[in-house]
Write a structure and sequence with these properties.
The chain has about 500 residues and is of the alpha/beta class. The strands form five sheets. Strands 11-10-9-5-2-1-13-12 form an eight-stranded parallel beta sheet. It is globular, with a radius of gyration of 26 Å. The relative contact order is 0.10. Its cofactor is Ca(2+).
């Protein structure tokens, strides 16, 4: 009888789909509830061919044609995928071939390859209509060797003699002396200009881990005086920096966290790795921007595909962890499709929009909807409550709401029994419509098949809907009887 009921319940689930029906109290949108989409503007989407003067598509180190209009053209897509904040690479005028934005020649002008100030204002306005914020990466440590101040004899104390950064673009920059009050004043004034002229919602400070802490404190204070709600993020140039070594007390709200990224990539790059290894990396630290891809590292899809992992399966596991656990998830352009690439040239290829996977897109929609609908996934306390093999279950609690995130990164089915849930409750799953009720032992046994994840909200146990089940059984019986009658009539005709 139990098997029959289980079968009928499965039929019911298939017939009614998988709606998200529980409402949550509205909360202010703040960084913990955001989903960031990071864009390397020149390598994203060419929306206006009229500004392609420097474009040389045969040269991967030259401009490729991405621009502001190309981003505007994709705003509906961002809304569909649930992104709440766009982070754009630097937009100010650069030296020739400075597609990345780090060869600044004029802090007060828009690079003509990207469009105009009016284009940026239009982007911000239309993004805001969709409740999407716009943040710009801002370079404070370097200017191009061709910047006018480099040859100005009266500004030689604006420049440090330190060695240029060891990066693909580092041979064409000089370092600014941020301890010089005039440099500090110039950088703050230029940032204020961009905020006031464009209406952007914040800045991500490029290579902020290399900046003077004193400068960062003064800079962030000045920006907050313009807008107390401004987003101030920190980019990290040193990918070997540990979470605990990220600068503190600078006024930057969220930092890139390379060590956390390394833990996530290492765990999910192949099946069988324990998910609780990531928790150990997060435990006791201030969680910043949670990411697995950026413009300077091997694409995550490339990493796990070399180990034979399926893109939809692996990204479903990773997105569940990124979106449902503490921190602000940050995706690099093309990851949602997903794109592959090992070298910098491959990683920074123009986005291949026609290569998307509809099933992966649907998962993006669902997981982002969950994060938006339930504040517990953004603001709740976070703890590891059970592990078995490569499966772990995490608990989040916030404002009288409790959720469990179960992830099995293993190659076998695993189960974990939870004992801290009231027996009059049930666990409602929102990724695969799984429901877990109390067992004879008083526990809630959560089982997951290999390489799968489920997200549960604790609810009142409403029991089986016997009226609806009876209706389905009646329909099923009528259907079978109908088939039998038709079959008998067919036999009589054949006789």
């Amino acid at each position: 009888m139990k098997k029959i009921i289980g079968l009928l319940l499965g039929m019911v689930v298939l017939s009614i789909g998988s709606p998200i029906s529980i409402s949550a109290d509205k909360v202010d949108r703040e960084l913990d509830g955001d989903i960031i989409y990071s864009i390397l503007v020149d390598r994203y989407n060419n929306g206006d061919a009229d500004n392609d003067e420097q474009v040389r598509r045969e040269d991967p180190h030259a401009y490729q044609g991405g621009d502001i209009q190309g981003i505007i053209d994709k705003l509906d897509t961002y809304e569909e995928l649930g992104y709440t904040t766009l982070v754009l690479s630097p937009l100010m005028e650069n030296a020739p071939d400075g597609y990345h934005g780090y060869w600044v020649e004029d802090f007060y002008a828009v690079d003509s390859q990207f469009g105009t100030m009016e284009d940026i204002q239009k982007l911000v306005s239309e993004a805001h209509e969709r409740d999407i914020k716009v943040v710009m990466e801002y370079v404070t440590n370097y200017v191009a060797t061709s910047h006018p101040l480099v040859e100005d004899p009266e500004k030689q104390d604006w420049i440090k003699d330190d060695q240029a950064p060891d990066t693909p673009w580092g041979d064409n920059v000089v370092s600014l002396n941020q301890e010089n009050p005039k440099v500090e004043e110039m950088l703050i004034d230029a940032a204020s200009f961009w905020v006031n002229e464009t209406g952007i919602d914040g800045l991500k400070l490029h290579a902020a881990d290399q900046a003077s802490q004193n400068f960062l404190e003064k800079f962030t204070k000045a920006m907050k005086e313009i807008d107390e709600n401004m987003y101030l993020l920190g980019d990290v140039l040193n990918n070997d920096i540990a979470t605990a070594d990220l600068p503190q007390g600078t006024g930057i709200q969220k930092w890139d966290d390379p060590s956390l990224r390394a833990a996530i990539v290492s765990t999910f790059s192949e099946p069988g790795n324990a998910v609780d290894d990531i928790y150990e990396q997060q435990e006791g630290s201030d969680i910043g921007l949670v990411y697995v891809d950026d413009q300077s590292t091997k694409r995550f899809t490339q990493v796990f595909s070399e180990n034979g992992r399926n893109a939809l399966t692996t990204w479903s596991l990773v997105l569940t962890y990124m979106y449902m656990t503490p921190g602000t998830p940050s995706l690099f352009q093309g990851s949602e499709l997903p794109m592959y690439g090992s070298s910098t040239e491959e990683v920074q290829e123009m986005v291949k929009f026609n290569s998307g996977d509809p099933d992966l897109t649907e998962f993006h929609n669902r997981i982002s909807s969950l994060k938006k609908q339930f504040p517990v996934f953004s603001h709740g306390d976070f703890e590891l409550v059970g592990s078995s093999g490569a499966m772990s279950i995490f608990k989040r609690s916030y404002d009288n709401q409790t959720a469990y995130i179960a992830i099995n990164n293993g190659e076998e089915t695993e189960a974990i029994t939870l004992t801290d849930i009231n027996q009059d409750k049930q666990l409602r799953g929102y990724l695969h419509d799984d429901t877990v009720r109390v067992g004879d032992d008083g526990g809630f046994k959560v089982g997951l098949s290999r390489e799968s994840a489920e997200v549960y909200i604790v609810q009142e146990d409403t029991g089986y809907n016997w009226l609806f089940i009876g209706f389905v059984v009646a329909v099923f019986i009528v259907f079978i009887v109908g088939i039998v009658i038709l079959s008998r009539k067919q036999k009589r005709k054949s006789v």
